[in-house]
Design brief:
The protein is an alpha/beta fold.
Length: 123
């Protein structure tokens, strides 16, 4: 199972050449093996909800269309949850003082809990 992080999900949402390149790379694996996490969904939803809150008129309509597209992308994928196993791993990683952001650490914990390969552009 190959887990896409939030950055990959953003690339797929934006479309264009980077999304085509990513889709081509992902086509090497069965679609059922490409997953993401509820944490990525949370991160992106916060951004979309903030956008809909500040936009007006035609920009608001476009923001809602994009929010709908965002939902469709996630609805078409397996979204791994942040469950008790992931939380226990997260706490262990935190106690080891792993130096990455909290959300990235949660995504890593979900990957470990599900024996998934985390695909990331982070170094």
């Amino acid at each position: 199972m190959y887990l896409l992080n939030t950055d990959h999900m953003s690339i797929l949402e934006r479309g264009g050449t980077p999304a085509l390149q990513l889709t081509l790379k992902l086509s090497a694996w069965p679609e059922s093996q490409i997953v993401t996490t509820i944490v990525s969904y949370e991160e992106q939803c916060k951004g979309w909800l903030a956008k809909t809150a500040r936009e007006r008129d035609a920009a608001l309509i476009r923001a809602y269309v994009q929010l709908g597209q965002h939902l469709e992308i996630y609805a078409g994928m397996i979204v791994l949850s942040y469950d008790t196993s992931a939380h226990a791993i997260f706490q262990t990683l935190q106690s080891q003082r792993v130096r990455i952001g909290t959300q990235d650490l949660k995504i890593a914990a979900i990957a470990l809990a599900n024996d998934a390969t985390l695909l990331t552009r982070n170094t």
